[in-house]
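In the design runs reported in the main text, the only information available to the sequence generator was the tokenized backbone. The following block is the verbatim input for one such run; it is reproduced so that readers can re-run the procedure and compare outputs position by position.
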């Protein structure tokens, strides 16, 4: 099914998203090293229900991306030097991403799927397990949880991304919106 890009872009505009690029989701780089970094070095491992090990194996994540003909990288950048404000900002964006996913679905794209720009924080106390998640309808994984090499993927499309050395640097966050 040919995607009506104007229709999707009108949805993005409605929610104030103005930095994005159309991509072929098959070109999203999915790598084993990303999963390894989740398992060894991230405090969210096994404590957030949208993070490993609550997600499919790396090969399945890759296959999932390849099942879509169209998608977008959505870019959000913000300077916030307070970690708690960062979490609030990301939560607000993630709620908007759910609305976008829903609108795209209602526009006729039944496979519409949006990743969050952060781990899910819809609840103040995440259960840490998919089986006990308190909002399975709305929780979504971030791209890294799906083993997406965000650095390599967004760089391919000319978006900015850097290792942040402190909270005094601007964040660049990314969501994948898969459309078909
Ligand atoms: S909806 Fe709640 S319990 Fe489920 S992943 Fe998000 S924060 Fe965790």
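Verbatim output:
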């Amino acid at each position: 099914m040919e995607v009506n890009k104007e229709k999707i872009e009108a949805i993005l505009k409605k929610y104030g998203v103005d930095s994005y690029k159309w991509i072929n989701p098959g070109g999203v780089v999915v790598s084993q090293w990303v999963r390894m970094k989740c398992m060894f070095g991230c405090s969210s491992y096994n404590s957030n229900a949208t993070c490993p090990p609550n997600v499919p194996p790396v090969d399945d994540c890759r296959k999932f991306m390849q099942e879509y003909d169209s998608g977008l990288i959505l870019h959000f950048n913000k300077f916030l030097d307070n970690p708690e404000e960062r979490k609030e900002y990301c939560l607000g964006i993630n709620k908007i991403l759910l609305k976008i996913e829903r609108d795209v679905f209602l526009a006729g794209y039944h496979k519409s799927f949006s990743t969050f720009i952060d781990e899910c924080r819809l609840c103040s106390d995440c259960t840490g397990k998919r089986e006990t998640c308190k909002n399975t309808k709305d929780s979504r994984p971030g791209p890294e949880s799906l083993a997406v090499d965000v650095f390599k993927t967004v760089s391919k499309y000319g978006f900015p991304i850097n290792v942040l050395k402190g909270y005094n640097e601007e964040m660049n966050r990314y969501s994948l919106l898969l459309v078909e």
